[in-house]
Amino acid sequence: MTWTTPDGEPSEDENGYPVPGSPGEIKEIPCHWHLGGNKEYRNEDNRITRQKGRIRIDVGVEMPEVGQEVEVVGHFKGEVKDIYRGQLSWRIDV
Asked: Are 3 and 64 in contact (CB under 8 A)?
């Protein structure tokens, strides 16, 4: 699974000139893709979207936040809807 971390915050130098933030970093971790699911999520515009699948990853690895775009190469590309951090494994609902 791959995703890009958020861009760094822009700032100003000592003379007051704007300094752009650092670009996001591309992250890649091993995962297991499971197609399907029965959850429904409401978007900001009140439209309902259905769960497309679930991504399982090892405990303790860095993972994206809710709302970020992820890609499981050859299976899925879209937005993270929910995250669960259990004792034995973590999962990402998409």
From this structure: yes
| 3-state SS string for 5-64 | CCCCCCEECCCCCEECCCCCCEEECCCEEEECCCCEEECCCCCEEECCEEEEECCCCCCC
Question: What is the predicted pLDDT for the residue at 9?
Answer: 77
DSSP secondary structure letter of residue 76: E
CB atoms closer than 10 angstroms to residue 91: 18
Is there a contact between 73 and 40 (Cβ–Cβ < 8 Å)? no
On whether the pTM is more than 0.70, the answer is yes
pLDDT < 70: residue spans in the chain? none
pLDDT of amino acid 55: 93
d(CA 24, CA 83): 21
Measuring CA to CA, which residue among 50, 82, 46 is closest to residue 66? 82
